[in-house]
Amino acid sequence: WLRCTTFDHSTWYRGFTLFLTFLFYTSYHLSRKPISIIKSQLHRNCSTLIRPPNLNGTDNETWCDWAPFDQDNYKTLFGAVDNSFLVAYAIGMFFSGIFGERVPLRYYLTIGMLLSGLFTCLFGLGFYLNIHSIWYYAFFQAMNGLVQTTGWPAVVACVGNWFGKGKRGFIMGVWNSHTSVGNILGSLIAGVFVSSAWGMSFIVPGIIIASTGVLCFFFLVESESDLLIYSTLKQSIVAALVRTMLIAVYVQEDNEKEPLLQNSSSNEEIFSSPGQSNSISSEPAEEHTKAISFCGALRIPGVMEFSLCLLFAKLVSYTFLYWLPLYIANVAHFDPKEAGDMSTLFDVGGIVGGIVAGLVSDQTGGRASTCCVMLILAAPMVSVHSHIRHHWLLTMWMLLVCGALVNGPYALITTAVSADLGTHESLRGNSRALSTVTAIIDGTGSIGAALGPLLAGLISPTGWNNVFYMLITADILACLLLSRLVYKEVRGWCGHSPRHRG
Fold first, then answer.
1. pLDDT at 264
2. 333 φ, ψ to 5°?
3. Largest alpha-carbon pair distance within the chain?
4. Are 38 and 201 in contact (CB under 8 A)?
5. Contacts of 298 (CB under 8 A, 6+ apart)
6. Which of 310, 316, 294 is nearest to 481 (CA)?
């Protein structure tokens, strides 16, 4: 009965942890999205609007814009604000995993979400305080980028602690939809306030992520071993009471010489009978408690290839994330809310792409091959999208397809691949590498996430077609970086060598 109860508790906590970490990282992305929605509100085409008669000022072309984004260099300024976040995020990510291996994940996530909520709200307060300094907005974006690095390594480590490799691709593919769900919710919430009071587009998401930080502090169980500790403590108390009663009745001195409960790492050992406990070896298995070094994580086979591949995959994904609403507003002349709503189709496609990538890679055992095929298909889709932008029914379908093909590899690498490599057989059972490996992979990818929007801001004045050519080039480079791993997987399928995931 005790074994059955513990299994039920473990299963329940596994699902609950999956739900909580989904909620946590949804709030992370939800608080990142508003900046892309309000761009088309900060700089508008004022000639199409009716100017209020009581408005002071003589500039009829920029009266509706928000300084300092009211000048011709507004795209460069938008790029600077984006990169304040993304560069800080990329730099911080390399250190975040190291801290994540040494600090309780519950505290780490809680502090990160509370601080992220604070900095997101402070950015939005610029509207109500009538602040027009680019340095104010860039500074709080950079601070938000630093504290948001607490999220990804921690949530991946939590999920990796609870789930084995068997269905990891599919489970993490479904779970990774939090990225797209957060983007969608962030777009919708920001769109509600963008035309009336854009400051609330940041304050509301800031309050949401801070609230999830409070939930994290009270409810997150980091790993099954923590649950084991709680269960052991509870069973120890009960066993101690029972033993005290037996001693009082039978006065058996031998019982006092036996340990109450053997230290163990499985449910069978905790709830086994005393006879079974004695059969367990008195020499405990050596546990690898020392966290892996940065260089040690880099030497894990596949880490470098997937990290560099993610750099280019994230370059494409984050260019869409930060510039797609403005692109739609400029080309289709949609208002900011409509452009933000349409851009969510890209994230809807990303949900499907992440699930499909995880399911296919689980069935085939080819993480690299799955990523490579989707990236190969993504390149022509991005090219087609750039040529049908005036046919908006087709564009909606292409946004869905591009979202699936672009975000599928990105989702697979940052979840299942990171978890596989963080528990690679070369680590010989060291369970404290997952957060560091995840941080290295996502940190390298974040360099691409910073470069993409920056290059888009510099290239877009020369024409949107040139931006799409940049994205196609990035997709091709991502494929080439995986060629060695794809070759190994194909040889494994043909029976030339053992097949290993990651």
1. 36
2. 60, 40
3. 98
4. yes
5. 304, 440
6. 310
How far apart are alpha carbons 481 and 478 in whole angstroms? 5
Q: Which of 140, 171, 152, 126 is nearest to 15 (CA)?
A: 171
Cβ atoms within 10 Å of 246's Cβ, excluding its own: 12
Instruction: Report whether pLDDT(247) > 90.
Output: no
Task: Tell me if the pTM is above 0.85.
Answer: no
**The residue to which tokens 């059969």 are assigned:** 279
Taking 90 as the threshold, does the pLDDT of residue 253 lie above it? no
Chain centre to alpha carbon of residue 463:
31
Token pair belonging to 165? 């490799």
Gap between the Cα atoms of 398 and 22, Å rounded = 27
Q: What is the C-alpha to C-alpha distance for residues 417 and 445, in angstroms, rounded to an integer?
A: 13
The candidate with the shortest Cα–Cα distance to 81, out of 418, 363, 326, is 326
- Cα–Cα distances (Å) from 69 to 48, 221, 382, 469, in that order, read 18, 45, 29, 27
Cβ contacts of residue 133 below 8 Å, gap of 6+? Answer: 68
Which is nearest to 100 in space by CA: 420, 437, 430, 435? 435
Q: For the chain, give the percent of residues with pLDDT over 70.
A: 74
Residue partners of 245: CB distance under 8 A and separation at least 6: none
Q: Which residues contact 241 (CB under 8 A, 6 or more apart)?
A: none
Cβ within 8 Å of residue 428, ≥6 positions away:
288
Buried b or exposed e, range 436-464, using 16+ CB within 10 angstroms: bbbbbbbbbbbbbbbbbbbbbbebbeeeb
CA atoms of 365 and 382, how far apart (whole Å): 27
CA distances from 162 to 155, 158, 267, 283, 395 (A): 11, 7, 14, 26, 40
- Kind plus residue range of the DSSP H or E element containing 78: helix 74-100
Alpha helical stretches, state H, 165-266: 168-175, 178-193, 200-219, 224-250, 253-257
Spell out the long-range contacts of 237-244 with Cβ–Cβ below 8 A and sequence spacing 24 or more.
none
Q: Please tell me whether residue 45 adopts helix, strand or coil conformation.
A: coil
* CB contact set of 249 (below 8 Å; sequence gap of 6+): none
CB atoms within 10 A of CB 390: 9
Q: Exposure of 280 by Cβ count < 10 A (0-12 exposed, 13-18 middle, 19+ buried)? A: middle
Task: Give Cβ neighbours of residue 51 (< 8 Å, ≥ 6 apart).
Answer: 60, 63, 64
Measure the CA–CA gap between 37 and 49, rounded to whole angstroms. 19
Local confidence band at 216 (pLDDT 50, 70, 90 cut-offs): very high
Name the residue type at position 60.
N
- Identify the DSSP state of 163: -
- Residue bearing tokens 């508008």: 44
The one-character DSSP state at 460 is G
**Mean pLDDT lowest among 119-123, 257-261, 421-425:** 257-261
pLDDT over threshold 80, residue 223: no
Burial class of residue 86, CB neighbours in 10 A (0-12, 13-18, 19+): buried
